[in-house]
Amino acid sequence: MALPAAAALTLTGCAEQMFGTDGDDGPDGEGEVVVGVPAEPLDSPDRPGPSEATGSLEDGDEVLGLVRAGLVRAGLGDGVSADSPAPVAALEQGRLSIGTLGDVASGRATTVDVDDSCTTVSGAVDGVVLGCGTTVRVLDAEGEEQRRVDAPGEVTAAAVHPDGSLAVTVESDADVHWFSPDGESSGSEHITDSASALQLVGNTRDGDPQWRAALVDAAQTSVTDIDIADRSRLAALRIGQGVGTVSAGTRPDGVLVASDPRRNQALVYTLTDVIRHTQSVPTGDGAWAVLWDSDRELMWVSTTGDNTLTGYDLSTGTPVAVGEVTTAPDVRHIIDDGSGDLLLVTADGTREYIPSDDLPRKD
By its UniProt entry, which SUPFAM superfamilies does this protein fall under (predicted)? Predict the structure, then answer.
């Protein structure tokens, strides 16, 4: 999908632009960036309650991260779809659940015991990457460990390129540390003070899928486009006034979406030749969990101020809300598998499974 560049913006290293107080981010163009303090989700009101939520609800343990455990298979070009959905992985304290969207929702997924130090998870082309204390673990789509890499500190984020190269960030270190496919250190580069997440983003601008990563710094409310295979920093942009969560799709279309709960908005970026901010979308109160459904070209945004999930069509350059459904309170995560169904997970671990037939659609 090629999103229209309604608000294209690039930045290649000017700190004043990225972290200054120019006040031009957000629907009304007012306000200052809160630097150094990560945004937090807004607590949901008492009503509507879980009984009014769309779809089915299942109790569960608190989830630290919810990701797809498979995308386009490297070099083959065959993606996930309704007929061949992606596996999904949920990281809980001491356990990784991995399987179909429905199995993770119902608690029937395969579980892999992990150390309590495993606190971060990112999706890969064919598996997941865990940050466990000072160790990075790479697992396949069935949860089998493929390799381990020793990091130079407590891991805050990690991502793996389809060629096996790794990017790793650690606490109290502004560098991204590069590792070769065989696990050897390949150097490091100063990028951002307090990296909090890495999201793999693919694009097919030059034909075959090319894979980059979006490095998120919640405290600095920034996103940096990095090339893991080339071990390089490309460009960086601000994410509104306080980034909440980010998401890329099941297809390598270069799209990254993000929430900004401080300004009640969602933002859209593309990572193709260079990272660009293309759209800002005003939302209800408490935008937090977001999802880019690349198969249907819809952005889903959960707002905890009103316990609502809203779908936005971004294809014309002017965001259009296509409909909304009621959710359980305090949604923290959203994931899909290419089938059209969605899984939402709340702060207390409740799983909300919403079949595609219960969701609004584009005309």
Answer: YVTN repeat-like/Quinoprotein amine dehydrogenase (SSF50969)
